[in-house]
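INTERNAL AUDIT FORM
Audit reference: QA-55
Scope: verify that the stored structure record matches its stored sequence.
Auditor: D.O.
Record contents follow.
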Amino acid sequence: MKIKLTTLYVDDQEKALRFYTDVLGFTKKADFSNGPFRWLTVASADEPDGTELQLALNDNPAAKAYQQAMFQQGQPALMLFTDDIKGDYERIKTRGGEFKMPPTEVTGSTIAQLNDTCGNLVQITQLARW
C-alpha cells in the first residue's frame, strides 16, 4: 500500500493554492468543481507523481474546529522534509512566507515553522545526518 493523498483543511482555497504553489513551490495537480464543491490538490515539484495534498475547504464544523484548535496550540497541520532547510527558509521568505520559527536545531533535526495564511502551521524538517 501507498499513501497517495492526504487532506489539509483551509479557510480559503484560492489563497491556499497561491501559498502552496507561489510560496512553497508545489505544483497544482487537480482542480475541478461540481456545484459548490471544489476538488483541489497540489504535489511536490520534486515528486509530481507522488503524494497529493488536497486543499479542502473547512466548511465542515468538525474540520474547522480541528483546524483552529491545532493552530491555537501551535501544532503543525503539515510536516514537510527537506535536505536544505536554510536554503528553503531563505527562498520561502523571499517569496513572502511568514515564519513563526526560523530554522532551529532540536533533537535529531532542524525545524522551521510558518503560517500558510489559510489557518495552518506548516513545519519544515531537515533530519540530522550522523
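Auditor finding: record pair retrieved intact. The chain has one domain: 5-127.
Action required: none
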